[in-house]
Amino acid sequence: MLDEAVDLLQKMIRNKCVNPPGGEMRNILTVSEYLDKYDVPYEVFEPTPERGNLFAEITGSGGRPSLMFGPSHVDVVPVNDENKWVVPPFEGVVRDGCVWGRGALDMLYFVAAQAVVFANLHCEGFQPRGTLKLLIVADEESAGTVGAKWMVNNYPDKVQVDYLITEQGGEPIEKDKMAYWIGEKGIAWTRITFRGEEQHGSAPYKSNNAVVKMAEAIKRLTEYQPPRDTQFIKPLIERLNISSLMKKLATSTSTLPRLLDRLSNDNMGMARFLHALSQMTISPNIANGGTKVNVIPSEARIDVDIRLLPGQDEKYAHTQIRKALGNLAHEAEIDIVPAEEGGDTHPGTSSDAETPLVDTMREVAKELKGSHIELVPMLSTGATDARFFRDAFGTQAYGFAISDDAFDLQTIQSLFHGDNERVSIGQIEMTLKAYHAIATRFLS
Length: 444
Known about the structure:
Shape: globular
CATH superfamily of the largest domain: Zn peptidases
Number of strands: 21
Radius of gyration: 23 Å
Low-confidence stretches: none
Strand content: 15-25%
Largest sheet: 6 strands, mixed
Number of helices: 15
């Protein structure tokens, strides 16, 4: 299975399904060709030209819950500067025990592992009591409009499922502790627009310059501190091998900021993660304004990535933005980034930390990594397609894989959407074994 998974992963990286615009049908056809070799029945859906989803199932005889491999997405984010990469980002190079390329970690290796395990189970004549489903989709890196969300809305009878396993998981939190993801923060991608008056740039005295307002707004948003909430970091903190005093400092909203400052000197990855899990985050990432260098602009706007804790919503986000802007708020037009531009808004979602599937995951992890391994439930700071299934069907959805400990948590975090993205071949192998064992045990 390992050779097949590595080969499939390399092919998908080379297909360069960058979203936008997507073109995910290239990867869907690549997976289809692989499944065809083993006579695996499947269906392909094409919501819009060149953008597709794939669905397959091994029907169970009854008496056990259903399980889905996926939704696993085949779209990837763009590469800003290919010159910063050690190897070309779309060649799928194997080097230093890793497969390199955009999407290798997020999340094409999951797609490869799940497709390969599914095909091998089919060839083995697997006859489960619970149905095993495979769902591979487009558009996760945007809003799921033609991907998982589209499948849930248009084919709920096919994709409804009791449990699913999707992206992330296996990250080493510390020695002998490994993450599994039970939920995720929400999204409220927001556009803030400022108006001004056009006039000649050679006479700017007391001008009404929209870009100046935008610049001040960016400064205020960056400096603003939303209310803190430590309830979502407690499950992690309680399992770390740190003193009771440190645990108390980390779970108090008044002392957490000082702890984060100290932690950032030694472990920036953990500091950023704890920060994101303890508050709504605001990141102004796109700024546009002006038409010509000698024209004072009449319009400027910021697109802001806002991530919400469970229980927070779009109204909460916009209230916090207005507080951050202060006396600029009355000049700001605050809207959600349009869906046609990839905008999204969705509350945070989570699944139960302890379920029969988690028991099976824990059992398999101990067999593959050692009896000392402990699974730690985590809330993801980023969004996944699992949210659509939790909302629509009450699915118990988890991010789960098995790490070979080739990278620490900080390195793994830097590779998601980062330069030199890669996944170790050891992690692919461990994850293949885990998925095969989970399916056969949980569904039988």
